TrEMBL record:
Its EC number is 2.1.2.1. The modification N6-(pyridoxal phosphate)lysine is found at residue 228. CDD domains: SHMT. Residues 7-384 form the Serine hydroxymethyltransferase-like domain. It is found in: Cytoplasm. It comes from Haloarcula saliterrae. PROSITE patterns: SHMT. Homodimer. InterPro entries: PyrdxlP-dep_Trfase, PyrdxlP-dep_Trfase_major, PyrdxlP-dep_Trfase_small, Ser_HO-MeTrfase, Ser_HO-MeTrfase-like, Ser_HO-MeTrfase_PLP_BS, SHMT-like_dom. The lineage of its organism: Archaea, Methanobacteriati, Methanobacteriota, Stenosarchaea group, Halobacteria. This is Serine hydroxymethyltransferase.
Amino acid sequence: MSYDTVRETDPAVADALEGERARQNDTLAMIASENHVSEAVMEAQSSELTNKYAEGYPGERYYGGCEYADDVEQLAIDRAKELWGADHINVQPHSGSQANMGVYLGVLEPGDKILSLDLTHGGHLSHGHPANFAGQVYEVEQYEVDEETGYVDYEGLHEHAEEYEPDIIVSGYSAYPREVDFARIQEAADAVDAYHLADIAHITGLVAAGVHESPVGVADFVTGSTHKTIRAGRGGIIMCDDEYADDIDAAVFPGSQGGPLMHNVAGKAVGFKEALEPEFEAYAQQTVDNAVALGDRLKEHGLDLVSDGTDNHLVLVDLRPSHPDTTGKDVEAALEDAGIVLNANTVPGETRSAFNPSGIRAGTPGLTTRGFDEDDCREVADLIYDVVEAPHDDDVVAEVGERVDELTDEYPLYE
Ligand SMILES: Cc1ncc(COP(=O)(O)O)c(C=O)c1O
């Protein structure tokens, strides 16, 4: 894709866009929530649909001229239903956070009670953190992972639910490397007559490909992002049974959003079509295999993984046992200098701050899109380890950077 036309109008933005393309081409994107979409998805996202108001839903719009908007949204919905098998799917949420907002607004009253995983244990801001609207409008208590095992403490969650009697239990996480037992959480929700929202933002693609067990048909509501383990461009989705369809749709529009971003809905439609191809299942499985290979090699180097490994697309390294004087931010910064982009992350039982935590989170969706396999990911683990050992050694960082350059040349991304 060329930015020549942008350049004619706005060289400063063209410089930034080209800079970002070069950055993505020349670095290893290992932020677990990021991926690289196809040129087809990007083309759809930059289409004339950005001009179109289409408030409402296919066939029931508040504006004229919506025939093509209807076509695109219906395609996105139909493909999403094929991917995830839900009765009803709303593809309009602008993001995963907006999807969660849609569920809360759809079925909760202000002051109702949310029970969700603590942010420092892998939860998400939109699950009721005080800095997010959900923490301001609803009452929130949080459950935790077992700090010994790193797994969700399902028993503790169940007991907590019986004491707290929440209106909704939120499952699905941001920094949790293990498969989630949605059925077990549903048991707790049933025991206290609470709704269950399964937020599969991170594993949307793994669930679509059948690589992870699906909460669809188990939880009352399933929300997701469309740009993490599935490559359909930035956005969110909500899935539910038909009985909740009207409440959810009304909570998205007009409850919390205006006109849908139809160009992004077009991107979702294209990305969902790509995910229905047989190759996507192989991609999702490879993403997991790569994360397992990455994690195993980091362990061989003596690093400590939360939960001792991974079932999904990410690993969470607790630096404290092996490198007590090194923080996640030290490692994040040095790795970025070497061209490996991941993020510092809190770990269960965090003893530092959320801003300068004790862990790093590394994901494989982006590397897998580039074509990396297990051997490549083992080598990436070696490179990460070299930097963890010597984050302030410029020679080590430069050497790792040279190998990253070779790897990115070997696996090109965007033209
Ligand atoms: C579990 C979870 N839910 C929701 C979100 C929010 O997604 P978005 O950034 O699209 O709003 C994230 C983002 O990483 C997440 O990890």
